[in-house]
Design goal:
32% helix, alpha+beta
């Protein structure tokens, strides 16, 4: 109590001034309706600005949770698309029994490490073996192709993107159905090349390149990129097509890891066919 009295004595002029200001506002607010309304309006404006700032901060920190929720929902919706199912038709006498089985599943993941300026780039995501992720699974973004899973731990997976010298994916032209192989020259992360397309076929600027579905990883029809130009490789009879990639690897955030339920069966059958021809 003694210390409190000493503080009040030391700052008595300040305390008196504050009390007088408060008293004057109280008297003014009670004197006339106009003065009261002005004071209440000013107080309301200050309070409104305060709550608006608090809500903005809350919205900012809630944005990540909302993005994660939307990404998970998109994964569920992708798994319900028609191209995620495979049709089995079994004709017995005059009875046609067609059963649709889901071939592809989609698992949403968040990119936690990404490179795009090296000769051989890699991506790491926050899903691994414990989430059903395995090597050779295809990976896409909301915009298009990303790459293939190459290794996993319990909670993480490493992806070889198309921005890698060893990456090679089967693709085709949406307009014509002509197939080729997607490769990267290690220069610009925004562009890649399509090779092994015979010069007997023609390209139009802006033609859409999609996954062919000929491999056991990517479903058919995933956007890959858009044709910028095509040049003939001298003496080869094939085009070298420059495309602008559909996925912006510099802004990669959420991805979808695709599981092919028939991958092992398809791979085993392919290996048996290769062995039988040797």
């Amino acid at each position: 109590m003694h210390k409190l009295l000493l503080i009040l004595k030391k700052y008595d002029y300040v305390v008196v001034f504050v009390l007088l200001v408060v008293a004057s506002f109280v008297l003014m607010s009670r004197t006339t309706y106009y003065q009261s309304s002005r004071i209440m309006s000013a107080a309301g404006s200050v309070a409104g600005s305060w709550y608006k700032g608090i809500n903005s901060i809350g919205d900012y920190f809630g944005l990540k949770r909302e993005n994660d929720r939307l990404a998970a929902e998109n994964a569920r919706l992708r798994a319900r698309l028609a191209e995620s199912y495979i049709s089995f038709s079994d004709s017995i006498f005059t009875v046609d029994d067609t059963i649709y089985k889901q071939q592809y599943t989609y698992t949403e993941a968040h990119v936690i490490k990404n490179s795009w300026s090296q000769q051989n780039n890699y991506i790491m995501v926050n899903k691994g073996r414990d989430h059903g992720i395995k090597p050779d699974m295809a990976v896409i973004s909301p915009d298009g192709i990303v790459g293939v899973v190459v290794s996993t731990s319990a909670n993480f997976a490493t992806i070889m993107p198309v921005l890698h010298s060893d990456s090679r994916n089967s693709v085709k032209v949406l307009r014509t159905g002509i197939s080729g192989h997607l490769v990267w020259d290690g220069k610009d992360y925004r562009y890649a090349q399509v090779l092994d397309v015979p010069t007997t076929h023609q390209f139009n600027d802006g033609d859409t390149i999609i996954t062919s579905g000929l491999a056991a990883d990517f479903p058919e029809g995933i956007p890959v990129g858009y044709v910028e130009s095509a040049e003939t490789l001298k003496g080869s009879g094939f085009f070298k097509v420059r495309i602008r990639l559909a996925t912006d690897f510099n802004k990669l955030d959420h991805v979808y890891i695709i599981g092919n339920r028939f991958h092992d069966e398809q791979q085993q059958l392919m290996e048996q066919s290769i062995d039988s021809n040797q």
